[in-house]
Design a protein that fits this description.
- The complex is a heterodimer.
- By secondary structure, chain A is an all-alpha fold.
- Chain A has ten helices and no strands.
- The two termini of chain A are 18 Å apart.
- Helix content of chain B is 36%, strand content 24%.
- Chain B has nine helices and ten strands.
- Classes of the chains: A mainly alpha, B alpha/beta.
- The interface between A and B is medium-sized, with 21 and 27 residues.
- Bound molecules: adenosine-5'-triphosphate and magnesium ion (MG).
- The site of adenosine-5'-triphosphate has 12 residues of chain B, from β2 and α1.
Chain lengths: 254, 274
């Protein structure tokens, strides 16, 4: 790591500490009733208790699992469909306007439909996650495949590469930066929709944990759930950054 | 000497091109091509013999690249035919390699030099076990030994073009089609690569077709120089270059025959532009 990056890391750590201290101060000063705002000490205690003695650990795992399944589902479908649409100008012309029409629909708009079709089931939650996360995936993959240097297709023809090898060896790696960017967006969307889906279908997860804690005025438990959500989002984004820098090493090697 | 002027008479008979050193490898017969509703090339007759080095010159936009693409099988003629060893050229062939001018776009930026050469070996289905040795050999041949692990964006323009040449050689081509391969390089790098290409053509016995803007480069490299005129593109002059080989950057360029050819070609271009 470069010295400047270490400095930034410590600076951000300092800000985080400052935030926790402010939070502690506010709750100690009782500016907000402790029924609604527990201090970080109580939230932390609830978190530890929840994991060691309660169900919190299992719920956390449930959320992570759903998020990852939905994300993988969206990524896979997005890459396959996006590759098809992106590599054919005609397909882009035909399907493009429809994509633009469906894309702005919030994922929550499909929730009633998913519920009526699949009930309050695990499949419904996964469908909603997959559907919502599909769009960023699809659009960035289409963009990536459409932007492949045409000269490379000529090189492939001159080399006599069969079509499937052209997709695998030329178009896919060339679109990788866009695909990874799409996967990053899709991951964030997946986490959000996982929580919403869990709240709606009361599946065992952080979403339902937070909802139930809020309804029963257990604010410390609620905050414990929110902290875990934050950790999940942060760690998954970090993991993706790491994977990205390995996968796209060629881009920064100037 | 076999030459023909046609500058003042675009509708007139085209220059027939006959001089060649061996059996025909590539032949264009009565080729016309229309692109985007415009006639780009008209009545092209060109035969390239085994092992011959043919250079093509002509003003920008006269159809040099289009002709190369036709010979490569990337385009199909609207009329007439392109034949490779007496077979119709209906699509690109693995033994006819293309070297593009814009090496930056023709290389895979996500693959190292090794990986870029490997692409050609993967395409021709070279046995996996032999690939590494072959890559080293090819990179050494184009003057890039020890650069196998660099990415294209870590290399200079000249190195990238060498890499593209190495990749095309991995196809074991019997024909090399080069489209202004050194157009974007500085004079020193250019001369080094000219000699490199000559020695590669000599050692592999490949038949070469070389597009350039640079008249001296065309004479220095070629056995024959073909001059095109524009609108529509057509063969207007053919010069046989009877300069001894191997050629040398100093002595060849001072040869009276070189200077005479250069004069003739310059006169032709001037007349064409007038
Ligand atoms: N696919 C195409 N569709 C329509 N017109 C084309 C196409 N390709 C080339 N042309 C036209 O054909 C003419 C010849 O193009 P070409 O690229 O062969 O010229 P060139 O001699 O290689 O020029 P330069 O020296 O600038 O590379 C140009 O006027 C160009 O606009
Ligand atoms: Mg050109």
């Amino acid at each position: 790591m470069k010295p400047s990056r270490i400095a930034w890391f410590f600076a951000s750590l300092l800000v985080a500490c400052g935030f926790v201290m402010l939070w502690q101060y506010l709750s100690d000063a009782r500016l907000v009733s402790p029924v609604f705002l527990p201090g970080p000490d109580r939230a932390w205690a609830a978190l530890v208790r929840g994991i060691t003695q309660g169900e919190l650990g299992a719920r956390w795992l449930g959320t992570i699992e759903r998020m990852i399944y939905g994300w993988l589902l969206a990524s896979f479908a997005g890459i396959v469909i996006g590759a098809f649409i992106g590599s054919s100008e005609r397909a882009r012309a035909y399907v493009g306007p429809m994509l633009e029409l469906i894309r702005p629909l919030p994922a929550s708009a499909v929730v009633p439909l998913a519920i009526s079709l699949l009930g309050l089931s695990e499949a419904m939650v996964l469908t909603v996650i997959g559907f919502g996360a599909l769009w960023p995936m699809l659009l960035s993959t289409v963009h990536g495949f459409a932007a492949v240097e045409p000269r490379l297709y000529e090189v492939s023809r001159a080399l006599g590469l069969p079509q499937w090898k052209v997709i695998l060896k030329i178009a896919l790696p060339s679109s990788m930066p866009d695909i990874v960017a799409g996967m990053r967006l899709a991951l964030t969307v997946s986490l959000i929709l996982t929580v919403i889906g869990e709240m709606l279908a009361s599946r065992e997860g952080l979403g339902s944990h937070i909802l139930i804690s809020a309804r029963s005025f257990r604010s410390a438990d609620l905050f414990a759930g929110v902290i875990l959500l934050g950790v999940t989002g942060y760690v998954s984004a970090m993991a993706l950054t790491l994977a990205e820098s390995r996968l796209l090493r060629w881009r920064e090697s100037h | 000497m076999n030459k023909a002027y046609e500058a003042s008479n675009p509708g007139g008979p085209h220059a027939a091109v006959t001089a060649q050193t061996g059996a025909p490898v590539l032949a264009a017969k009565g080729v016309h091509i229309t692109l985007g509703g415009r006639k780009i090339l008209q009545d092209i007759d060109l035969t390239i013999g085994e092992g011959e080095f043919v250079c093509v010159v002509g003003a920008s936009g006269c159809g040099k690249t289009t002709l190369l693409r036709l010979l490569a099988g990337l385009y199909q003629p609207s009329e007439g035919s392109i034949r490779y060893r007496d077979k119709e050229m209906l699509k690109p062939r693995q033994d006819v390699a293309i070297i593009f001018q814009d090496y930056g776009k023709a290389l895979l930026p996500w693959r190292t030099a090794r990986g870029n050469v490997a692409l050609a070996l993967e395409a021709i289905g070279a046995p996996r076990a032999t690939r590494d040795a072959r890559i080293e050999e090819l990179l050494a041949k184009v003057g890039l030994p020890g650069e196998a692990d660099k990415y294209p964006n870590q290399m200079s323009g000249g190195m990238q073009q060498r890499l593209q040449i190495a990749r095309s050689l991995a196809q074991n081509p019997s024909v090399l089609l080069m489209d202004e391969p050194f157009g974007a390089l500085d004079a020193m790098t250019r001369q080094g690569l000219q000699d490199e290409v000559l020695s590669i053509a000599r050692s592999t016995g490949a038949t070469s077709f070389f597009v350039t803007h640079d008249l001296e480069e065309a004479i220095y490299l070629g056995d024959r120089v073909v001059g095109l005129l524009a609108n529509p593109g057509r063969v207007a002059i053919t010069l046989d270059v009877k300069l001894p080989r191997p050629r040398d950057q100093l002595t060849t360029r001072e040869d009276p025959e070189f200077l005479r050819l250069r004069r003739e070609l310059f006169d032709f271009i001037k007349k064409a532009e007038a």
